[in-house]
Specification:
heterodimer, A: about 250 residues, alpha/beta, Rossmann fold, 2 domains, six-stranded mixed β-sheet, four-stranded antiparallel β-sheet, 9 helices, B: about 325 residues, mainly alpha, ABC transporter involved in vitamin B12 uptake, BtuC, two-stranded antiparallel ribbon, 13 helices
Chain lengths: ~250, ~325
């Protein structure tokens, strides 16, 4: 079996008395979509933040492409190839759509301490940026001000920026949130292809999407992974049913 | 974008027009006013680099203005008294050469900006404002209590420093020097604002999380911006000192920081030419209202209040509209 791209080894994080992450071990393998589900407050976002470096775990370590990244900053991890999309769209709102994507392309290039180049005239960057916009279907919005985009378009833009980073793994925090049925369907189709470019850790509330897409699913409840397995295994897992799916609406 | 370009051109024409008209009518005082506006504009453009592009509300830019001023004052003082600044371990003499003085002013300001920035940028928001103010006050009181260079009384320089090939005592020639430097600074800032550094810096102001997610550290961007900002303001300080042939701790006082900030806010925060408009308007108000009343700053206060309440984008926002996101 090929080595996992991302390995989380025994991570724990507490906020006061609350154990937001309790000895979590997870991995993300090449070519897969790994779904991460769990009820509200289960600690999904806390986990993502520890992976990206916004939060430091109390114990445990994170390996990315075989390298221990536990002590690296968010920016350094991004440079290594963690392509992240945010739960709440986090973009430069006063910029055009194209400018936001060019920022991603710049991030990939590395050295930005250049003061005399006209960045929006850099054909190479623009090409990378426009390719990414085309992939997510935003090519007609390139000159729009980002704050004028609809909620769904902002989500697409987040994905486009992540694409320009040419990441080794995607970390997506609820990319479907607020997209509507049609938008979700499009994104599902897109992510289905994207997994061949780089594996995806997908945190999502939309159960249909997760069960349709994920090769493996992990279920997080009260900061603990209670099960990891294929969609079938998760559906039939008694623990999961009682802790999560069984309570009211089924998946 | 077009309206803004037009406004830039009008502004430049205004400076040149006023100075030339005053020269033809033999009104040296008006030329001096235009020179003062150009120098203030440089200081404002400097502050705007940190405040407008990086969102760093520095209330301590008087430090750099004053350091530039004292760089000129100290170098010229030693040149006019024929005493070395330093004898040991190696001799440093004063100079009366403007280009050398400018370089010293820029380098000293930049070095101090690295120190102040590295410490201040660990905070943000109101704490950043306060810590930059605190640094400025430190320098202010240091200058007051250092008798070697005049202490509270400041330093008078008898003759304006020299620039190769020009007679700097001629007002229109000194205006030409200052105005050319303003244009050079504007050119640099314009390029920098549209460079990859500028794109990231202005993005960091809007959303630090986003900048990190694409692999960059906001702190490094801010520090670089703060240093460039300080260096430009330092240059303005040296020019201002040469204009008056006088330096005093007033240059370092928090009033100076406030005035530089007023140029930026009046003109338009984050617009390359904004502070030029702000400085010009400030000098104009001082001239017109100052003739009416000694307490002209009351009116300035009212205007500033109006701008902050009703025209957030300053003069540029009012005339040229919201900044167009450019391609």
């Amino acid at each position: 079996m090929t080595d996992p791209v991302l390995e989380i080894r025994g991570i724990s994080k507490s906020f006061g008395g609350l154990k937001a992450s309790n000895n979590i071990t997870l991995d993300l393998r090449p070519g897969e979509i790994h779904g991460l589900i769990g009820p509200n407050g289960a600690g999904k976002s806390t986990l993502i933040k520890q992976i990206t470096g916004n939060l430091t775990p109390d114990s445990g370590s994170i390996y990315f492409n075989g390298q221990n990244v536990s002590h690296l900053s968010t920016a350094a991890r991004a440079r290594l190839g963690m392509g992240r999309t945010f739960q709440i769209s986090s973009l430069a709102m006063d910029y055009t759509v194209l400018q936001n994507v060019v920022m991603g392309a710049l991030g990939q290039r590395g050295n930005i301490f250049r003061f005399f180049n006209s960045v929006m005239k850099d054909a190479e960057l623009i090409k990378v940026a426009e390719d990414a916009l085309e992939q997510v279907g935003l090519e007609d919005c390139r000159t729009f001000r980002t704050s004028d985009l609809s909620h769904g378009q902002r989500r697409q833009l987040e994905v486009a920026v992540a694409l320009t980073l040419r990441p080794k793994a995607f970390l997506m925090d609820e990319p479907m949130a607020g997209l509507g049925a049609e938008g979700s369907q499009r994104l599902i189709g897109f992510l289905d292809q994207l997994r061949h470019q780089a594996p995806i850790m997908l945190v999502e509330h939309d159960m249909d999407a997760v069960f349709a897409l994920a090769d493996r699913i992990s279920v997080l409840v009260y900061g603990e992974i209670i099960a990891t397995g294929s969609a079938e295994e998760i559906r039939s897992n008694a623990l999961v049913r009682s802790a999560y799916l069984g309570e009211g609406d089924a998946a | 974008m077009k309206k803004e370009t037009l406004l830039n051109a009008v502004l430049i024409a205004l400076f040149v027009g006023v100075a030339l008209a005053a020269w033809i009518m033999d009104e040296p005082y008006l030329i001096t006013l235009a020179t003062k506006a150009a120098i203030f504009a440089i200081a404002g453009v400097g502050l705007n680099f940190a405040l407008g592009f990086g969102g760093l509300v520095s209330f301590g830019h008087a430090v750099f203005f004053g350091l530039g001023g004292y760089a000129m004052g100290i170098l010229a003082f030693h040149a006019q008294t024929y005493t070395p600044i330093l004898e040991w371990p190696f001799a440093i003499n004063g100079t009366r050469s403007m280009p050398v003085i400018w370089c010293v002013a820029i380098v000293v300001s930049a070095v101090v900006a690295v120190g102040i920035g590295a410490l201040s940028l660990r905070t943000n928001g109101v704490y950043f404002i306060m810590i930059t103010l605190a640094f400025a006050q430190m320098f202010y009181y240091f200058a007051i209590s250092w008798p070697t260079y005049g202490g509270e009384d400041g330093l008078s320089i008898y003759v304006r420093n020299e620039f190769p090939g020009l007679n700097t005592m001629d007002p229109i020639q000194y205006f030409a020097i200052c105005f050319t430097l303003l244009l050079l600074v504007l050119f640099f800032v314009h390029r920098a604002a549209h460079s990859s550094f500028g794109l990231m810096l202005r993005a960091a102001r809007q959303n630090e999380e986003r900048v990190q997610a694409v692999g960059h550290t906001p702190f490094r961007l801010y520090l670089t911006a703060f240093v460039i900002s300080g260096a430009i303001t330092g240059l303005a300080g040296a020019l201002f000192a040469d204009l008056n042939r006088f330096v005093s701790p007033t240059l370092l006082s928090w009033h100076t920081s406030g005035e530089i900030m007023i140029f930026v806010i009046l003109g338009g925060v984050g617009r390359v030419f904004g502070p030029v408009a702000g400085a010009a308007l400030f000098i104009l108000l001082e001239y017109v209202l100052g003739g009416l009343s000694e307490f002209w700053q009351i009116y300035l206060g009212a205007i500033l209040l109006g701008v902050v309440l009703f025209a957030r984008g300053g003069l540029y926002g009012l005339i040229a509209g919201r900044e167009v996101a450019h391609d």
